Request: fold
Amino acid sequence: MPKPPLAALYAGAVLALGAGVYLLARDWSTVYLLQGLAAAGPDGPLVDAGRWGGSLPSFAHVFAFSLLTALLLGGGAGRTGLACAFWAVVDGLFELGQLPALALAATPLTDRLAGLPVLGNLGPYLQRGQFDVLDLLAIAAGAAGAWFIAVPNNSNRPAHSRAARRTSHA
Reply:
């Protein structure tokens, strides 16, 4: 794992890129955290993020939250893998929940949550959201990217340091 300040910087930078897509390439009235600012914001998207750019927030969320969770858990391959898998599953379920049949099946739950802060937005998110297989790929890439950043690659060490470590444990 990179030193904590550097890992947090990576997470913050990638999260900022994902947020940039929401600010520049999405209609603010459709973004939960920007709805209150929509009247003062642009009338619609300022730029076209393109086919892959629209999936950048999915990548960024999993990447950043996986790194930050791994930091909180103390690093290590097992804990980092758990953090990456957790966020990939969470984001993947939210993406799959946007499939019309699943969004409809979730209606009893989302109706119960309707009056709660933040969670009350789950129903509109699932019902108005657009399932995209590229978002699922971005989610997987975000988890994999966080894993490769956070878990040291032993093959990059000089052969003599690996051999010395093996003999010191004998």
